[in-house]
């Protein structure tokens, strides 16, 4: 199925470029994601009930016949949060690429939900788009807050009987300034609900071409008020995908934070501590070679099959060491060596966690 949560204004059958109330939609059978008329407005309760029915009917049980299902075979409910884009139909086209490339078919990873917001449709508008991102962060926080409360409830249920654990793992793929939206939302949620840490809300977070400062996680393992604290503390693992060929983020760095590079263009700042559950992958060798502007969204082009293979491996919960051994991570040795520089936290393999009840 295709799913949409958006705070765009919907007027006269068109999703516009202004803010509206938060609404929930499902795609009609046989419809096109790029055709607004093919989306059906539903209540939040009906959206939740339909999603849970799909999960219960099609996802494998976490525990079956007394044995746990391997993490690689478990299914996800994944939010896709877009960033800079050209128009609503272009946003939905990219969502379709992600949903079809990772979540459809017999070997699909589950269900993907588009979280859509009225980002600017032109490059110059994008460069000053943070006010829209902050406003959207509030709406995303509301969505994630409901998910958090549900997770907490189901965690108690699963403690009494593991067979009743929710079948879905939760994850997020955020692109460009969608990562700023995510940062804002999870910081608010972390501050309001999750101190001390009670659950990991997200199993895997993929920060793709992230338009955020590359020292976002500079507080390392310390609990304070750092920009990336909500992200790192409420996620099991975070992977930043970047390339130095991204000219969109090259322009963004000078206009948003003088003297600080973008995570999606330069990778993590390894002169500061980095939490153990955060790492980065240089995707330059994985991406088709296009001009620097197009590179910004090339991660999601169907032709970028090596990037999709990496994202699939990450969502399947494969350990970093396995991803490296299987050749899904290019130049892994050099990045690991950089992580061993003075003052940096080494990149070490992480164990596969137990499933998070939903």
Cross-sheet strand order for the largest sheet: 3-2-1-7-6-8-9-10-11
Give the averaged pLDDT, no decimals: 82
Class from secondary-structure proportions:
alpha/beta
Rg from C-alpha positions? 19 Å
The largest pleated sheet is described as:
9 strands, mixed
Instruction: Name the helicity range.
Output: 25-40%
**Strands, total number:** 11
- Our measurement of the CA-to-CA distance between the termini, rounded to an integer number of angstroms, reads 19 Å
Number of helices: 11
Strand/helix succession: EEEHEEEHEHHEHEHEHHEHHH
Which stretches are low in confidence, meaning pLDDT under 50 for 5 or more residues running? 336-358
Number of domains: 1
Q: What gross morphology would you assign? A: globular
InterPro entries: AB_hydrolase_fold (IPR029058), DUF900_hydrolase (IPR010297)
Biased composition (Pro residues): 348-358
Region (Disordered): 336-358
Protein name: Alpha/beta hydrolase
Please characterize this protein's 3D structure.
It is a single chain. The chain is α/β, with parallel strands linked by helices and 358 residues long. The chain has one domain. The chain has 11 helices and 11 strands. The chain has helices spanning 44-58, 88-103, 123-126, 130-160, 178-193, 229-233, 247-256, 263-266, 305-315, 320-325, 332-339, and strands at 3-11, 14-27, 39-42, 63-64, 67-68, 75-81, 110-116, 168-175, 202-208, 235-242, 278-282. Strands 3-2-1-7-6-8-9-10-11 form a 9-stranded mixed sheet, with helices on both faces. Strand 9, helix 6 (229-233) and strand 10 form a beta-alpha-beta unit. Helix 4 (130-160) crosses helix 5 (178-193). The chain is globular, with a radius of gyration of 19 Å. 44% of the residues are buried. Mean pLDDT is 82; it is low at 336-358. Residues 348-358 have a biased composition (Pro residues). Residues 336-358 are annotated as: Disordered.
């Amino acid at each position: 199925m295709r799913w949409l949560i958006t705070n765009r204004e919907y007027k006269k059958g068109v999703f516009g470029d202004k803010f509206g109330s938060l609404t929930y939609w499902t795609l009609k059978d046989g419809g096109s994601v790029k055709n607004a008329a093919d989306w059906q407005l539903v209540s939040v309760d009906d959206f939740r009930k339909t999603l849970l029915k799909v999960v219960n009917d099609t996802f494998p049980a976490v525990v079956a016949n007394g044995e746990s299902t391997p993490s690689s075979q478990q299914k996800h409910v994944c939010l896709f949060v877009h960033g800079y884009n050209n128009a609503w139909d272009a946003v939905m086209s990219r969502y379709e690429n992600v949903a079809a490339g990772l979540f459809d078919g017999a070997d699909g990873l589950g269900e993907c939900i588009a979280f859509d917001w009225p980002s600017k449709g032109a490059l110059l508008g994008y460069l000053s788009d943070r006010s829209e991102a902050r406003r959207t962060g509030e709406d995303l926080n509301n969505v994630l807050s409901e998910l958090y409360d549900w997770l907490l409830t189901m965690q108690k249920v699963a403690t009494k009987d593991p067979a009743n654990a929710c079948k879905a793992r939760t994850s997020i793929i955020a692109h460009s300034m969608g990562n700023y939206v995510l940062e804002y939302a999870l910081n608010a949620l972390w501050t309001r609900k999750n101190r001390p840490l009670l659950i990991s809300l997200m199993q895997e977070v993929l920060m793709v071409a992230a338009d955020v400062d590359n020292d976002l996680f500079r507080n390392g393992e310390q609990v304070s008020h750092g920009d990336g604290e909500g992200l790192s503390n409420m996620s099991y693992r975070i992977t930043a995908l970047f390339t130095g060929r991204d000219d969109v983020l090259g322009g963004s760095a000078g206009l948003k934070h003088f003297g600080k590079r973008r995570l999606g263009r330069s990778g993590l700042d390894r002169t500061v501590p980095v939490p153990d559950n955060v790492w980065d992958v240089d995707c330059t060798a994985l991406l088709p070679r296009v001009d620097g502007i197009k590179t910004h969204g090339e991660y999601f082009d169907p032709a970028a099959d090596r990037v999709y293979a990496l994202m699939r491996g990450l969502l399947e919960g494969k350990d970093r060491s396995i991803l490296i051994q299987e050749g899904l991570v290019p130049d892994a040795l050099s990045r690991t060596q950089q992580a061993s520089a003075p003052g940096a936290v080494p990149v070490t393999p992480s164990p596969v966690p137990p499933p998070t009840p939903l």
